[in-house]
Design a protein that fits this description.
The chain has 395 residues and is α/β, with parallel strands linked by helices. Helix content is 37%, strand content 20%. Strands 1, 2, 3, 4, 5, 6 and 7 form a 7-stranded mixed beta sheet that branches. A 7-stranded mixed beta sheet has the order 9-8-10-11-12-15-16, with helices on both faces. A two-stranded antiparallel sheet has the order 13-14. The protein binds P-hydroxybenzoic acid (PHB). It comes from Janibacter limosus.
Amino acid sequence: MRATRTLPLAITVTLALTACGGSALSGGGGDGGSGDDSKVKIALLVPQSGVYAPLGKDMEAGFRLYLDQNDNKLGGKDVELTVVDEGAGPEDGVPAGTKLAQDESVDAVVGIVNSAVALGLTDSFTEAKKPLIITNAGANDITGKSSSPYVWRTSFANGEVGEAIGGHVAKEVGDGKVYLVGPDYAAGDEFLAGFKKSFVAAGGQIAGTQMTPFGKTTNFQPYLQKARNAKPKAVFAFYAGAEAVTFVKQYDQLGLREDIPFYATGFLTEGGALTAQGKSAEGIFTSLHYSSELDNPTNATFVKEYTAANEVPPTVYSMQTYDAGAVLDKALTKGTGGDQIVEGLKATGEVDSPRGPWSFSDKQGPDQTYYLRKVEKKGDAWTNVIEDELTKPSS
Ligand code: PHB
């Protein structure tokens, strides 16, 4: 059933993929369930502008693959899919998401890259009793103190991704110090704090921390110079999308790659970012819960079919949003009302995912394995080779 096509994903589009050709669907997130239970309307809220636009494209392609593989049905219901731009940050993403929370024709919302956008939307979804499946944004509070019965996450919590690799880096650097760097917003802070937690607990010392203006920094050289001056034994960073490309290239151009081992969260070297970085990313070690290199049968099929449809291999962003398709497929068998979908989500059980099997924790985020990955060239392509499993984060 899979259609192999490339869509003009960079523009905001609203596509009706159902046989009903985009007619208004009754429904809504409220208690009562939808009027027409044979159809469901899903809105995908992903960035189509700003430094995270490439991530939004991967997410949309992941969700579309799930629909294509499943006859455009979730829970046996025909899907009408609307794609809405999350924009460059909360100033765009929060109003766009609030509108979707309040739109009675939308049964559930999927997506969101940016932690600040997710944090700004949980109350609206809770008030509207509408399910929100976050397929990237890792803000810790979403599955912590701001948790809501209506907000679920198929991705990760920021702190976990940093925490998973801290103990390993402490062992590698011995009595040397590590310099931390990342963008100055919720996610940057939380990735670095998660790293610091396990790194310091394992005896590691911090050489310094630098937060860079988010979404505006194109010249990282002053910050990299500060990092070099601190004489660290290694650097640990979080960057993603366009910022990841610029940071890694400038790290290499300044000659730091030869001198200072580079560790990061895996977003730094995912997909199109890694292709653009090329050799400048060689040897970077990262932590993540996915690589297209993972060796399991579900991932083999996923990588094959995604690559056939999109001409590039999937990323963590594609996988997390593909999994939202799988999760909703089960949940929507209970009905399309907000509370019915939530009941369905509670009964998800084990998800047979390209990342390996996982299930929702009682905090409504994935209980999953994190891996140590290393950038290597395989044939003509740069890739994230799996080196090891990392220690399970405690948070
Ligand atoms: C976030 O803002 O939570 C975020 C953004 C990009 C990533 C990961 C996390 O790659």
